[in-house]
């Protein structure tokens, strides 16, 4: 396999660190370009050529004619397809296992991430707090956590009892449950143990600190990011 030559464009958000975790878990060498969201760097013409949707994360694969990939789920699958010959995170030769991993990856992309994103919006960023909406967001998050908790019964990880892309994509979001309005997950003991288990993985922990120290453990950075998002919605909604 050709030595990878990847540039990661990112920031330390829950979505951004998904890709640095995958790169670290796969042992792929990469360069990091921190996108200064506060300065609206994501809207610069040079970045829009990489991701026309002006979001992080994104990558450029310099070994493949500077091929850009955006959207975290697409990036994750791309990296595994091209740079995971040992099938560490995504099975290639077992169609059923491969399908199971991708199913859970899509569960995160279509369920967990949007649910927690909505909760962040209504709990953290909008000035008007609407109890019905906030409670409904928390209820949906707990429902999704219940699905994961049941699926983790008697297992250490979601698929094949080993750490895969299914775990790598959900973990960065779920570990931020308190930020999304679900203070405690004691009612989901299997899920809680799963988080604690992944907490001990050195490569994952290294990925959480790219390109800035773990934002969920850095109050100053978390506040900075929160203020950025509040400003974004204030501008968009003319509040």
UniProtKB/TrEMBL annotation:
GST N-terminal domain residues: 3-87
InterPro entries for this protein: Glutathione-S-Trfase_C-like, Glutathione-S-Trfase_C_sf, Glutathione_S-Trfase, Glutathione_S-Trfase_N, GST_C, Thioredoxin-like_sf
Pfam families: GST_C, GST_N
Start and end residues of each GST C-terminal domain: 94-215
Family note: Belongs to the GST superfamily.
Protein name (Swiss-Prot/TrEMBL): Ure2p
């Amino acid at each position: 396999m050709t030595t990878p030559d990847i540039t990661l464009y990112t920031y330390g958000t829950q979505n951004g660190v998904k890709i640095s975790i995958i790169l670290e878990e796969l042992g792929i060498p990469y360069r990091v370009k921190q996108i200064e969201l506060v300065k609206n760097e994501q809207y610069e013409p040079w970045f829009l050529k990489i991701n026309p949707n002006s979001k992080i994360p994104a990558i450029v694969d310099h070994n493949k004619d500077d091929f850009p990939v955006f959207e975290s789920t697409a990036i994750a699958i791309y990296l595994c397809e091209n740079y995971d010959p040992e099938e560490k995170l995504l099975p290639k030769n077992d169609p059923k296992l491969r399908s199971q991993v991708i199913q859970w990856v899509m569960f995160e992309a279509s369920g967990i991430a949007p649910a927690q994103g909505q909760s962040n919006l209504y709990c953290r960023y909008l000035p008007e707090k609407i109890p019905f909406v906030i409670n409904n967001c928390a209820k949906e998050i707990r429902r999704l956590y219940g699905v994961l908790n049941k699926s983790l019964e008697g297992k250490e990880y979601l698929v094949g009892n080993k750490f895969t892309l299914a775990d790598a994509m959900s973990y960065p979001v779920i570990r931020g449950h308190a930020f999304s309005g679900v203070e405690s997950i004691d009612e989901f003991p299997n899920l809680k143990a799963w988080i604690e288990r992944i907490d001990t993985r050195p490569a994952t922990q290294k990925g959480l600190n790219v390109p800035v120290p773990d934002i969920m453990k850095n109050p100053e950075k978390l506040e900075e990011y929160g203020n950025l998002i509040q400003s974004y919605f204030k501008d968009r909604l003319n509040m």
